[in-house]
Sequence to fold (336 residues):
Amino acid sequence: MTGALVQNSTLDLIGNTPLVLLKGASEAAGCEIWGKCEFANPGASVKDRAALWIVRDAEARGELKPGGTVVEGTAGNTGIGLALVANALGYKTVIVMPDNQSKEKMDTLRALGAELVTVPPTKFADPAHFVHTSRRLAGETPGAVWANQFDNVANRKAHIESTAPEIWEQMGGRIDGFTCAAGTGGTIAGVGLGLKAFDENVMIALTDPHGAALYNYYAHGELRAEGSSVAEGIGQGRITANLEGAPIDTQFRISDEEGLEWVRRLLTEEGLCLGLSSGINVAGAVELGRKLVADGRKDVRVATILCDTGFRYLSTLWNAEWLRAKGLPVFPWLDR
Ligand code: PMP
Fold:
């Protein structure tokens, strides 16, 4: 038995997420803004899709064998996706995370049975960086594969083969633009390539947080970062293999304050509790909608990604002391 709401396997619960019209964002943009509810995946983030595709690809290549181990460096969400996919298929997981990510993600990984290794955050060129640490650990562990989400294009294939066709179908083939931020770049590149395959006139925009280098790369051809961001899971300083050939038509840079304002509005006006990357994406979608309207397109419809649940950030984004310590505005109801 299969169908939209009946599945034969828990892994089939990954993907086929709802798409929702965002009222406040649509009013602000003067067109329709739609959010793809990736927080509705079983691991509560967009990264379940990449995790499933990476594991299936490693199996198909004969690298991952029964009883094997999946090792990955991650801001957390990919690790959570990998741990649940690995549990469902009988593999072990070793997850390396920078120690400045939310406690909720670490606790979730431990709860799922992953072996968690935390390392201090450092620059990519440092051999102690979480990505290099995870590659080394994979090499030292018998029967292990390194998921390598940044440069393993099975990641973006998940979005070419699942996210993009879902959005296209859910929007009845009427979509003018798509935007989201990049961590690995799998989502923006994969959805971009997938939507362009249906209609090359869909405008693909990168929404970059401060502190990342991609805005300047796509705007001026130079990888250069300015400022900083507390957003987890996004902000890239190089062209990963997943970003190579990404069909980026335009780009926006969004501050944490702007992203937070949309996080607040999505909660108070629409009842959605999300992470900061979702707020930054919605801010970017409003910019893209306004641009398409200004360009003279009619009945504009834009889609973006609601990446993960805000319940993953109760000790950070949804905590008055943490917000104050970061110099960010505190939601008034947190201060009561
Ligand atoms: N938002 C969050 C919360 C994430 O964890 C990630 C994954 N790093 C992203 C956005 C970006 O996704 P991608 O890696 O596909 O660029």
User: Anything to note?
Assistant: The chain has a mean pLDDT of 96. The radius of gyration is 19 Å. The first strand starts at residue 19 and ends at 21.
